[in-house]
Every structure is written in C-alpha cells, then in structure tokens.
Amino acid sequence: MPELPEVEVVRRGLAEHVLGAEFTATEVLHPRANRGQEGSLPALLQNAVITGVGRRGKYLWLNLGDSWDSEDAGNTGDAVAGGETRGVDKQPAEGGGHEGTALFVHLGMSGQMLVGEPGKVTSPHLRIRSELRTPTGELLELAFVDQRTFGRWLHTETTPGGVPEPAAHVAMDPLEAGFDPVATARKIRTKRSEIKRVLLDQTVVSGIGNIYADEALWAARVKPMRRASALRQRDVLNLLVESRAVMERALAAGGTSFDSLYVNVNGASGYFSRSLNVYGQEGEPCPRCGTPIRRVMWTNRSTHFCPECQVL
C-alpha cells in the first residue's frame, strides 16, 4: 500500500499538472471505484475547478471550486500537506455549487493517478477517467488505474479547514506544518500497545505504514514490540524525528516501489527501496552493527529489526 511519501509524490505531481483545471467529462468504468457515492460522480464533478491538491497521511484529495470563463484563468494556487490551500483567484462562471467540496482519493493497495493526453491510458485496470481543461485551454486526462480495486474516488463535502469528511478523523502526519511532536509523543506514551502498533494507528499519527515504521524504529534504536507507555518522552520524540527524516529521504527518492503498482502521475517508479536499512533485509547484516536482520510475523505483518542494537 502506498504510504505517506508515495502519496505526497503523487500530490506534488497532480499540483504541477492539474491545479486550476476544470472537469469537463467523467466516466466511471468500475462501480467499486466509486462505491459509497451519493449521486452521480460525473454530474457532481461537471465544471468543477481544481483549486487545491491536499494530503493528510495516506489520503489524497482535490479541493474543488466553481468554474470560470477561460479569459479569467490567470492565477493558480497550490495545496500543501494537511489540506491547507492557497486559493485560486479567478472569477467564477455561471453554474456554481462546488465550493466546500472535494474529490477524495484513496489509492488503496494499488491505485494510480495518471495524467496525460486524452486516451493515452489503455490499462485494463482503468477504473475512472476524467477529461480536464486547463486554464490555457489544453485538454488532459486524469485516469484512476487500480488493479486490486481497493481504492476509490468519492465526491464529498469538506470541513472548515478544507479536509474532506472521510479524512477528518485522521491525525496530522509528521510532514505537516501544524504537526506537534511534543503533544503527539505524549499521546503515544498513553498507549499500552506495542510501539509499532501505535505508529500504525492513523488516529494517533498518520502516514506511517509498515515500511517506514520499521525504518524509523531501527533509526531510533527502538524495539518494535516495546510497549509505548514504557518509553521515555525523549525517546518517542526522537522516534518522531526519525520518522520524519526517513520519509523525507523517501520523498526525495520518489517513494518506495517494489513492483509496478506504485507509480507517480507520469508512470515512473520510486527508488527508495534501494536505501532501506531493515525492511526486506532479513538475514542481511545490520548497517549499524553487523548483526543479521530478523524478520517476524506480527499482527499479520512482516516486522524487520536488529536484535542487537535496537535496545530501547
């Protein structure tokens, strides 16, 4: 499943290519890709303008606004992690009703958001496609490809902060500007569960999945099975610092791709998998102390750690 760095790579690509574009046509090709939708997705998106591209943890969305005449399409904006938007300053054309709404995107296990020329995507796993018109009049296609059909698009209302309602329960992630590591560390230390389980709890801290939890725990020298409440505040703070650091490195590498299921909006794979210290490295020497990395099955997940130097 794509984790925070992979979703952020996609968010940045979408912001670069489709920000300010208007939905002119949408076709749902598989009902699971729009499950739970009230009303017709093509009708709900018609003439909506993409005013921001937001993300919180592993969740992605396109903030929507009312359409405008092409001659008013001058200044575009961007959205940063957490759903904060810098609005698009344009005059709306007739036919509004899109303010305060968003296209919520859950990539699931294998979802891909691809941008290109209309008709370019011919994948048998194409689930939804939309035609977009940019402020300069260029036509683009936004395609949702999802082999395993666990992902979906959902047109929804947003909270006052611009976050879609399906993501409103999700905690802030370590890359958000408003993330409070001290308060988050305190919350983590109230939990009696194992620290890795707490890191994966999206209501405590979002965006950290199995890969980056293992990598951050190794970097902070913390045992994955250690009870969160037994850790010192400074150790949890350091763990959050390492979580942010490992995800920033992954982001710089375009994310982690083990197969062709995760790609960015141009169809390119990330290469952070070449830099992993423990995840997927069972039996290999620990980069820090040389002890063979161990892999155990825990809560139906593979957990990788160094039995020698992860001592906290």
Automatic annotation (TrEMBL):
Binding-site list for DNA = H125, R148, K191
Q: Which UniProt keywords apply?
A: DNA damage, DNA repair, DNA-binding, Glycosidase, Hydrolase, Lyase, Metal-binding, Multifunctional enzyme, Zinc, Zinc-finger
Q: EC number(s) for this protein?
A: 3.2.2.23, 4.2.99.18
Q: Which residues form the Formamidopyrimidine-DNA glycosylase catalytic domain?
A: 2-151
Question: Do you know which InterPro entries this protein is assigned to?
Answer: DNA_glyclase_Znf_dom_DNA_BS, FPG_cat, FPG_Glyclase, FPG_N, H2TH_FPG, Ribosomal_uS13-like_H2TH, Znf_DNA_glyclase/AP_lyase, Znf_FPG/IleRS
Q: State the similarity comment.
A: Belongs to the FPG family.
**PANTHER family per record:** FORMAMIDOPYRIMIDINE-DNA GLYCOSYLASE
Tell me the subunit arrangement: Monomer.
As for what it does, the entry says: Involved in base excision repair of DNA damaged by oxidation or by mutagenic agents. Acts as DNA glycosylase that recognizes and removes damaged bases. Has a preference for oxidized purines, such as 7,8-dihydro-8-oxoguanine (8-oxoG). Has AP (apurinic/apyrimidinic) lyase activity and introduces nicks in the DNA strand. Cleaves the DNA backbone by beta-delta elimination to generate a single-strand break at the site of the removed base with both 3'- and 5'-phosphates.
Q: What is the protein named?
A: Formamidopyrimidine-DNA glycosylase
**What organism is listed for this UniProt entry?**
Corynebacterium occultum
> What lineage does UniProt assign to this protein's organism?
Bacteria, Bacillati, Actinomycetota, Actinomycetes, Mycobacteriales
